[in-house]
Amino acid sequence: MIYLDNQATTPLAPEARDAMLRWLGGAEGDGFGNPHSSHRLGRQAAVAVEVARDQVAALFPPGGQVIFTGSATEAINLAIRGSEAGRMGAPMALSAIEHSAVLRTVEAVSAEVTILSIDAEGVAASQPNLAAGTGLVAVMQVNNEIGTVQPVEEIGEAAHRVGALFLCDAVQGAGKCEPPANADMIAITGHKIYGPKGVGALWVRDGVALEPVITGGGQEAGLRSGTLSPALCAGFGAAAQAMVDHREEDSAHIDALWTRARELFAAWALNGSATRRHRGNLSIRRTGLDVARLMSDVREVCFSAGSACASEAKMPSRILAALGLSREDAKSSIRLGFGRYTTMDDIERAAELLNAGAAAQGV
Ligand code: PLP
């Protein structure tokens, strides 16, 4: 099996797995304490959580706090629903290519939503026209479907000029790109940085006031009640640390895979900018391609048709539509996602199979 779906999720790094084992909590060990208990076992677990918090904090700018959540979707909900703008139902603006976690949540709380369009390269304008009175602006760092990198710092400045908070969904950029220094809130998740599923984080700049969405025992500075999982936090922390430690190596590896893949898939058209892009995302199309048939013919390769989240809905991707692609071109697109553990052999073999699959369809 060749795994080329690293935007949907990443395999668990060995460093993350090792860090989790003790805290999975077998009765024979000492790793099962509740990190919110004040006895010795609890304090040990709390230390593991705090070490992890510091490791995750290294992916964010200085001057804020890390709130652990169950996913990036939950972090995004806390940012939007918990902000004053969310509670007041204030006007909000977001890019046309935000993840559904942002789009659906903004739609649920705000009656006045401005969609910031993207250009034919898949990039939002760096100087968006934001109305006075806008309470929150949300733009992602790297798009999950087409990999384009957004001018988040400039958009953050524009948001601040009209007095709005700036939320950045950095799920696909964390540990690969510099964090947006002027964001007020940044959401990330463990399972896209070779950490475990079931844990995410919201970074909140000091001075930004939030109200909890999940209430109860008051954990996570009162912003997210519920007993934390030390194992998930420790795995997330170790994965974050590994992103920092392997950053240059990962980036050189992904560049090499991208360069070879562009040669091997030269007959396919690229979706989105070739330069303003995370190179681990190769979103490509062949007009007339039947993607469902390709997936069924090439089962050895795990790849995606559009985003994993949207593909269940069987709708042509709204991200590819925002890029200006026709319905037919959007439907004939596939996404290949490379990561730290993808090999050059994976790319060569996948290209052989996918190109043969497309040729069998006569496209
Ligand atoms: N934002 C982006 C850009 C994503 O790619 C994803 C996951 O697909 C999410 C948010 C949601 O992350 P999670 O699975 O942790 O809820």
Describe this protein's structure.
By secondary structure, the protein is an alpha/beta fold. The chain has 13 helices and twelve strands. The chain has helices at residues 14-21, 40-57, 72-82, 84-88, 100-109, 152-161, 230-245, 247-264, 291-297, 308-311, 318-322, 327-331, 344-360, and strands at 2-3, 64-69, 92-95, 113-116, 136-138, 165-169, 185-189, 200-205, 269-270, 281-285, 301-302, 333-337. It has a seven-stranded mixed sheet with strand order 2-8-7-6-5-3-4, with helices on both faces. Strand 3 (92-95), helix 5 (100-109) and strand 4 (113-116) form a beta-alpha-beta unit. Helix 2 packs parallel to helix 7 (230-245), helix 3 packs parallel to helix 5 (100-109) and helix 8 runs parallel beside helix 13. The chain is globular and about 65 Å long. The model has no long low-confidence stretch (mean pLDDT 96). Bound molecules: pyridoxal-5'-phosphate. Pyridoxal-5'-phosphate (PLP) binds at residues 71-73, 99, 101, 140, 144, 169, 171-172, 189, 200, 309.
